[in-house]
Amino acid sequence: MLRAIRVVRRDHLGAAEIVDRIVLDHGDRHRRRLAMRGVGGLAFLLDLPEPAILDDGDALALEDGRLVWVEAAPERLLAIRAPSRLALQRLIWHIGNRHIPAEITEDAVYIGDDHVLAAMVRGLGGSAEPVTRPFRPEGGAYAGGHGHDPAQGHDHPHAHPHAHPHDHPHVHPLADA
After folding, report:
1. Are 103 and 55 in contact (CB under 8 A)?
2. Which regions are flagged for Basic and acidic residues bias (predicted)?
3. Which of 47, 75, 78, 125 is the most buried (most CB within 10 A)?
């Protein structure tokens, strides 16, 4: 099977031939090894040396030098807003305390659609409105260049410090699929 062996970041694409595109949600943009099929039908194996975060606009380099464009799929999220910057910062703290992926922008925080967290946000004075858009959460403080998000848990030995208790599930989304 044809293999995709490296990630080419969107600002380094150059003039290589783009032969297909793959539309992936947040979870599938955090992989090392996974069988994939492009929108145009091209089947290939994502086979990276290390787990990587694939960003919207990046490409996967196939063994033969051709590229497959990566597109972030729209996902159902909550757009969390607050009446002031300080109120939004407080909401970010509470969301972070739940160890869930979050995308932080200038005026909102985006998280996966969750009615319990929506109620918490509203109870703290914020708004939580459902939206559908690509999800681009923060990579985490311990990303180390490969996007490790401690909020997602992990099943590898602890070679890096963690500033949070380890009572959350340990299933690493970056493990081989």
Report:
1. no
2. 146-177
3. 78
Three-state DSSP class for 177? coil
Q: How far apart are CA 134 and CA 24, in angstroms?
A: 9
CATH code (residue 40): 2.60.260.20
Q: Name 24's bridge partners.
A: 72
The pTM score is: 0.70
Among 89, 152, 78, smallest CA distance to 117 is for 78
Task: Establish if 139 belongs to a structural domain.
Answer: no
* CB-based contacts of 82, cutoff 8 Å, min separation 6: 88, 90, 91, 125, 126, 127
Q: pLDDT tens for residues 20-39?
A: 999 999 989 998 999 999 99
